[in-house]
Amino acid sequence: MMDVHPALSIIWHSSVLEKTPKSTGHQLNRVIWTPLSSMSESGREVLRQVNFFLKPNCKLAIVGLEGAGKSAVFQLLLRHYEPDFGEYFISGVDVRCWNIKKFRERLGFVAEEPVLFEGTIAHNIRLGRLEATDDEIRSASMLTQVHEFIQSLSGQGYDASVTQLSGLKYVVQRWLITLARAVIRNPTLLLLDCPNLPLNRSWEYSILIEAVKRVSTGRTVIIASRYPNIAEDADQILVLDKGFVSQMGTSAELLAEENGLYATMTHVYKPLRTTYFSRTLRENRPELPYIIFGCISSLVAGAAQPSFAVLYSEVFDVRFTHFEIIRKLKKIFYFAVLQIFASRSGSRAMQHRIAVVGGMMALVGVCRLLACAGQGYFFGVSSERLIKRLRIEYFEALMRQLRNLRPKYSTLPPVFPLVNEFMSKMNTVRSLNLEEHYVKLYIQKADELARAFAVMNMGTQSFGRFFDVVPEIQVAYKSAEIIYQTIDRKPKIPKDNGLIPHDLYEFSGRVTFSHVTLKPRDDVDRECDVLKDFSCTINPGQVVGFVGLPGCGRLGIVDLVEQFVHPSPPEDDEQGIYFDYRNIRQLKPSWIRSQCALISYESRLFSRSIKENIAYGLDVNETALNDIIQAARSANVHDLINALPEGYDTVFVNGESQISEGQQRRIALARALFRKPKILLVDRFTTDLDVEDQRLILRALADNMHQYTSIVIPHLFAHASYFDQIIVLRSGQQVESGTFVELSQSASYFKDLLNLEKMNRF
């Protein structure tokens, strides 16, 4: 059996291991790829037995779904990683024999996610070749069909900042700019990883395809994309599927295979149309009368100015069209004023006309006042009601999907932005050989830091209302997109799907794990334990503890019982988790969670009174105060609460409360006991507490846990002494079980863990 070396290890510059071939005749334009495999850090093979041969000045297209291994080919060619086995040659020389710096100078690479650095567009293109002139930059931009777009940017052209190109709107433009940066190097081998665009932006696809065709002339090109239409003119197409070469040939040959992956992808990827404007109108349908009256008010307010102009002309009996009045009003204004006030004795008809027209002008003014007020009122009511409904829907969606969300930060620390940019875009910097350039740039930025800070604080200029509103339109559209995507996102475990047992049925608290397997989840940003063929039964009133080193699988027990995750699909009907005799997959998650109470080191109090915190989540009345006090007594926190000036009515304010962390934990324990659950889940509840707080909490748990089916993950192994049974886990499997006395007095794995804990504590 062949030993597999650690995969994807990073290649650093080494003058000892890497040397430029002695022959100067080698050109990076002929790629030979012998059977080659590469593995990810998790041990999963990314590429498996990949073979291809590419002639000079030809185009190879690599097509496949997400995760097929397209980007891994580029990472290996750029020598960011090494393959586990196999070889790849360029111009007859093994790539690993080339000096990395010299090798990358002859390559041009454009990533799927276009990487632009802080500065102007010209600066970003010049990073491809630092000595490039302005004419060469323009020529590269024309070749990649991005010159006209650059010239249209706020009148600044190539001096425009790349910060103007943020967002999904300019993905293709940013990619074409990075393509110009690669082309200006005049590479012999060009590697293009095409961006993934929404299918409804067909005009951008045509621009991208045309630009790729133009830069492919006279050089060897390898292009990767999930969309087959980009690869139609390639000399050879490589279709990857989960790291394997599924198909190989020209576009016509592959389309002839109707059941092949390439033909399937060609038919599947068709333009789509998604918009949030029409959906916002539908959401605003209940306020349709307000919107109609608001539009009518806007029409009246807008018609006031032309009406005033018509009435003003009546003073002199001037017959013009509305547009002529507006054009000539300035010319006759001063003359009209002089004529009115210079005519002291004017005729009676003139005076009557002025009086009538003046009254009508006043009426127009009143109408405009009412119309403007109505406009603000009706549109304000309709928008506020829509926002109120969206807030409720958005919050409900967040509550349903809370465990699947990940934090996304909108800003980066302002300190050392250049270093942050270098580290976040390291692969691009290395592929462009810009390490020394960034070192010099960092030194320059450090010298200019004080002056830049002073200039930044000089102040800003104010903009007009119009320029304030225009950016908000894009922000509002993006906000609507995020809100509706969150509302429409379906949680993997909907809380309302499933059955609720009949009212006459009473759950006893018996929990059974039958051959349960839990695989790691990539979509949750936390430690994810794994269980493998795990089985056990926990009877009502029994206290069972799960112990082991971090990563042993103990955290998965709590997640499975609370239905935060589902176990792997069962191979037969007997596998799964059972409440009494019912598989929990058949039960409604909201009912399951109503039978459980979870307390962990992450338990927190809310900004409410202590009484409301203990009763939180349950519909209670004033008569339940005795039950609240009894729960507090059971949690050893009643005396503390009574000692407070306002007792149980004391309002907890996060960050300002006089209640310590240990006291907050005891109140959280009282909240769990007040629910009177069938199952009590305790997850490392004494973590980060002092000895006295730990003693009080452990005593409260020992006095109350036998009233429930208790599943405990102890913070310390020594705390397992009062458990009815201890189950020891290792790598997701149960290795031993028994009482504390049995395991601690025998030559067991638990005894080794206990001794190791004692050594670490002392």
Structural features, described:
Helix content is 43%, strand content 15%. The strands form four sheets. A six-stranded mixed β-sheet has the order 6-7-8-3-9-10, sandwiched between helices. Strands 16-17-18-13-19-20 form a six-stranded mixed β-sheet, sandwiched between helices. The protein has a four-stranded antiparallel β-sheet with strand order 2-1-4-5, covered by helices on one side. With 762 residues, it is α/β, with parallel strands linked by helices. Helix 4 crosses helix 6 (171-183). It has four domains: 31-268, P-loop containing nucleotide triphosphate hydrolases (Rossmann fold, 3-Layer(aba) Sandwich), CATH 3.40.50.300; 278-400, ABC transporter transmembrane region fold, CATH 1.20.1560.10; 494-595 and 677-762, P-loop containing nucleotide triphosphate hydrolases (Rossmann fold), CATH 3.40.50; 604-675, P-loop containing nucleotide triphosphate hydrolases (Rossmann fold), CATH 3.40.50.300.
